[in-house]
Design brief:
310 residues, alpha/beta, Nitrilase/N-carbamoyl-D-aminoacid amidohydrolase, 6-stranded mixed sheet, 8 helices, 23% helix, globular, binds 4-methylsulfanyl-2-ureido-butyric acid
């Protein structure tokens, strides 16, 4: 039986502060329909796909930011995504700001199967940025103010004939993210990102270097864990802040096989044969044969680097 999953990555163009959820969902629906018309099995949406990247705005009273959060999923604004997905028989993955019933705030991704059941939930572990206003920055990145670190680890799910994993934006820069999923046999990792084109602390860093970082970490994650990686940007100018595009699909050799060409809403597609993961998983990256965990203790016992004394 073929284990090819036809994956659509639905890059979002910019979403402005004043855009309603309904307006944004209409854009996502358009891309979902395009993916389904192209016989895709799943469509991946970006990080904070329903709103602008609101952590760029400082608010003294955190509670005033709750309007950016979803307290139920599906809810009235997002139900059309679930209804249409069920009608079209396409799965999807969506990232949104989650406010739980017990008042926790997470940057959350769900995996929805072709019958519109939520089969997986992930909450962003690596929150970048800072918790307080920092005037020395050209702009703010307040994820540490508005979200708590995810409490679910890096689970994977068996669905659509394969082993699926999720992570969100900054998580992609950390090899631990991919390795923990790799150790559970992950075959396709889906992630969304909202990444500024420039560095708020280092104006001389070029957009090209930052795009290189973006692709480098996803390509390394794919190769080193012998899995497919799909990365979905929110791109373009949000309220004067430019976000990079570069949405892509990467094969288990770490090669980009599909790449978005615009800074706008754009769907890219690739047939991801999950059996292509097997060769590297059984040879170079046969973890059971080659990993040396007796030497990896520092990775889970220490956060910061401790160089030897001078
Ligand atoms: N959304 C998100 O996690 N963005 C961060 C920006 C940090 S800039 C190094 C990212 O890692 O892309």
């Amino acid at each position: 039986m073929s284990r090819t999953v036809r994956v659509a990555v639905a890059q979002s163009g910019p979403i402005q502060k004043t855009d309603s959820r309904e307006h944004v969902v209409a854009r996502l629906l358009e891309m979902m329909k395009q993916a389904a018309a192209g016989k895709c099995n799943i469509v991946l949406f970006t990080e904070l796909a329903l709103t602008t990247f609101f952590p760029r705005y400082y608010e003294e009273d955190r509670g005033k930011m709750d309007d950016w959060f979803e307290s139920g999923m599906p809810n009235s604004a997002t139900r059309p995504l679930f209804d249409t997905a069920r009608e079209l028989g396409i799965g999807f993955s969506l990232v949104f700001a989650e406010l739980t019933a017990d008042q926790h705030h997470y940057n959350t991704q769900i995996l929805v199967d072709t019958q519109a059941n939520i089969v997986g939930r992930y909450r962003k572990v690596h929150l970048p940025g800072h918790a307080e206003y920092e005037p020395e920055r050209a702009w703010q990145h307040l994820e540490k103010r508005y979200f708590e670190p995810g409490n679910l680890g890096f689970p994977v799910w068996r669905t659509m004939g394969g082993v699926m994993g999720m992570c969100i934006c900054n998580d992609r820069r950390w090899p631990e993210t991919f390795r923990v999923m790799g150790l559970q046999g992950v075959e396709l990792v889906m992630l969304g990102y909202n990444t500024p084109t420039l560095n708020s602390m280092k104006p001389e860093e070029t957009a090209a270097t930052r795009m290189h970082h973006n692709h480098l970490c996803m390509q390394a994650g794919a190769y080193q864990n012998a899995c497919w990686v799909a990365g979905c940007a929110k791109a373009g100018d949000e309220d004067g802040h430019d976000l990079m595009a570069g949405s892509c699909i990467i094969n288990p050799d770490g090669e980009i096989v599909a790449l978005a060409q615009s800074n706008e809403d754009e769907v890219i597609v690739h047939d991801c044969d999950l059996d292509e993961c097997a060769f590297l998983k059984k040879t170079t990256f046969d973890f059971d044969a080659h990993r040396r965990i007796e030497h990896y203790g520092l990775i889970s016992s220490q956060t910061g680097a401790v160089p030897p004394p001078e």
